[in-house]
Design a protein that fits this description.
By secondary structure, the chain is an alpha/beta fold. It is 48% helix and 16% strand. Strand 1 (9-15) and strand 2 (19-28) form a beta hairpin. The two termini are 34 Å apart.
């Protein structure tokens, strides 16, 4: 599915658990040319309490940062921007109010991505900014609230994991009062080892030719090793030396290391514990540091969405294959529903390109639940779409897709749509109606093409107009449409069939 041209200036914003990053670039001749980078230590994870709520101080710090980022984006006239939230925002309860304020401050919507999607984007950012070397590559990224481990070849990730530990969470848990002792370090390392143990065998069995680290903790370790006269390569022996130095300091406020920034000091001990166990558990002899990370991955993924390499399209195809979708039927429904959308989009405010994309994907995947059970298969399909790992899809897009598929037949439960973020908590209703009509008209799975069908929309009223005599010759379709009139009426829609 070819897209429009790539804008002259694009940007990616990564709302991490420890720091917020923004990178602005120009896409030229297949390459990204970085124009500007901004990074601010926000420590969002430190403001998340045990109940999953962000405290006022963390919120205000984050919003102030996003206002500055937003100003820079406006000054640089970035035409296409992707903003993602990671572990802390995944965990945060009642985050809707914060996301609304954050969107207003930044000027762009924020996507919350899963840990696996974060891992995919990290690998893409690393792979795209490193030489294209043969063999498998292990990539490790220790963030503020999560740690991603990936094995891939070339630009394609093959095995992805996101672990529930990060430099902020580990530091708060074991060194939160500022003391750094051998006993605490042993406990932190044991916690990291326990988190790594379930994935140890899988990753070691895959094997790799080179190990690469990205982002804050690993980059900081490399900077310190380089300041001590090394080449920046991370080895188990070098890491143990840093841990010994950290223990000798005895306290966070006494930790001084050449190459270590002041803002990194409070979370350094927790990051060291995690990295040391990763090297040990996975038997990594040496690790180099990559220039790219999540934000670069976001940029390249954005370029893919705007050209012909949209990872979401690949995920949809993979789901079709995995759940044995009748491709011919899916294509028939897709063609019809997109025709209906074209006729109704202006009246219903569905001219956003995402409306046609998500409706197309819903048509292609509306029958995946049949692979589970024919009874209530729309519910099975919705569950799969909401909870499956679908590379390229942020959580909100998966929820929208699941909502459309889950309501494409039988009774519509509109109250379930209220959990969606504006404006799609309302717009999805119209997409559901269009898909329902398209599926209904192709219920017979006939290869015979449908006649030209007119669809008129005004408010919550629709008119379907058929060629004279067609419905009389297709009594089962006519009966289905009579039933659909009643089902839509219960959801506040008025359908008239002519």
């Amino acid at each position: 599915m070819a897209r429009s041209r790539v804008p002259d200036v694009i940007a990616a914003v990564d709302l991490g658990s420890n720091s917020f990053h923004m990178v602005v670039a120009r896409y030229s001749h297949g390459q990204l040319i970085i124009l500007d980078r901004l990074r601010e230590m926000v420590r969002l994870a430190a403001g998340l309490d045990e109940t999953g709520r962000l405290d006022r101080c963390a919120i205000e710090t984050a919003l102030a940062c996003l206002e500055r980022f937003g100003q820079r984006l406006r000054d640089m006239r970035a035409e296409s921007v992707r903003v993602v939230g990671t572990n802390t925002l995944r965990q945060a309860r009642r985050r809707g109010a914060f996301l609304d304020r954050a969107r207003a401050a930044l000027g762009h919507p924020i996507e919350i991505i899963s840990g696996i999607e974060e891992a995919r984007l990290i690998y893409l950012g690393v792979a795209r900014t490193m030489p294209n070397e043969p063999g498998r590559r292990l990539v490790v990224d220790i963030g503020g609230g999560s740690t991603e481990i990936i094995i891939g070849e070339g630009v394609h990730a093959r095995r992805l994991e996101s672990l529930y530990m990060g430099c902020v969470s580990m530091s708060n848990r074991y060194f939160g009062d500022g003391e750094i002792t051998e006993k605490r370090m042993k406990r932190a390392r044991l916690a990291a080892r326990l988190e790594l143990e379930p994935v140890q065998a899988t990753f070691r069995s895959h094997g790799w030719e080179q190990a690469v680290g990205s982002s804050g903790t690993i980059r900081s370790v490399s900077d310190v090793l380089r300041a001590r006269g090394g080449d920046g390569m991370i080895t188990p022996a070098a890491l143990e030396s840093l841990i010994e130095h950290t223990l000798r300091a005895g306290a966070v406020d006494k930790l001084r290391l050449p190459g270590l920034s002041e803002e990194r000091v409070p979370v350094f001990a927790g990051g060291l514990a995690i990295l040391a166990e990763i090297l040990g558990i996975l038997d990594i002899k040496q690790m180099r540091v990559a220039d790219g990370a999540l934000r670069e991955g976001l940029l390249y993924d954005l370029v893919g969405r705007l050209t012909d390499e949209d990872a979401r399209v690949r995920s949809v195809r993979a789901m079709q294959g995995r759940y044995h979708v009748d491709l011919a039927q899916a294509e028939r429904v897709e063609a019809t529903v997109l025709n209906f959308l074209e006729q109704a989009q202006k009246e219903w405010g569905l001219e956003d390109v995402f409306a046609s994309l998500v409706l197309s994907w819903a048509a292609r995947l509306h029958e995946i639940g049949l692979d589970v059970s024919h009874s209530h298969y729309q519910k099975h399909g919705a569950y799969l779409l909401e909870h499956a790992d679908m590379p390229g899809f942020p959580q909100e897009e998966q929820k929208i897709l699941a909502s459309i598929v889950g309501a494409h037949r039988r009774k519509i439960h509109l109250e379930q749509l209220q959990d969606l973020n504006p404006p799609w908590h309302l717009g999805v209703e119209f997409l559901i109606v269009l898909l329902r009509l398209a599926v209904l008209l192709h219920r017979g799975r006939s290869h015979e093409a449908l006649p030209k069908i007119g669809l008129g929309a005004r408010g919550r009223s629709l008119e379907l107009s058929f060629p004279r005599g067609w419905l009389e010759n297709h009594p089962l379709t006519a009966a289905d449409l009579e039933n659909e009139v009643e089902l839509l009426k219960a959801s506040g829609f008025k359908l008239k069939v002519l």
